[in-house]
Design brief:
The chain has four helices and three strands; from the N terminus they run αβααββα. By secondary structure, the protein is α+β, with helices and mostly antiparallel strands. β2 and β3 form a beta hairpin.
Length: about 100
């Protein structure tokens, strides 16, 4: 289970608070586990940390990706996107370490 260390976006603007939006993100099937987390821990963290509604669409046979739908205020969706990205980045870093690759920041 990874812990997301996303930098939260700046303070929301009035438009971001008032505007409801929905966006879809395509997640490679091989990485969907890092977004869901053990027993749903990561996806629950995305929900609670952002306040956005998070829906993972059912998988389509032989499809290389699954769709993650985020909805809420523009700010909530932006925070949720950052959290999803941080879980995916965390997964990439773990894979690189397992294969002996080192990244420096």
């Amino acid at each position: 289970v990874g812990t997301a260390k996303a930098r939260f976006p700046s303070t929301p603007t009035a438009t971001e608070i008032a505007t409801e939006t929905t966006t879809a993100i395509s997640i490679p099937v091989a990485q969907i586990g890092s977004v869901i987390g053990r027993s749903g821990a990561n996806i629950n963290q995305i929900r609670t940390g952002s306040g956005a509604k998070v829906k993972l669409h059912d998988s389509v046979p032989n499809a290389p990706e699954r769709t993650l739908e985020l909805s809420g205020t523009a700010y909530q969706v932006r925070v949720a996107q950052k959290l999803v990205a941080s879980f995916l980045l965390s997964e990439d870093q773990q894979q690189q370490q397992q294969h002996g690759l080192q990244t420096y920041h």
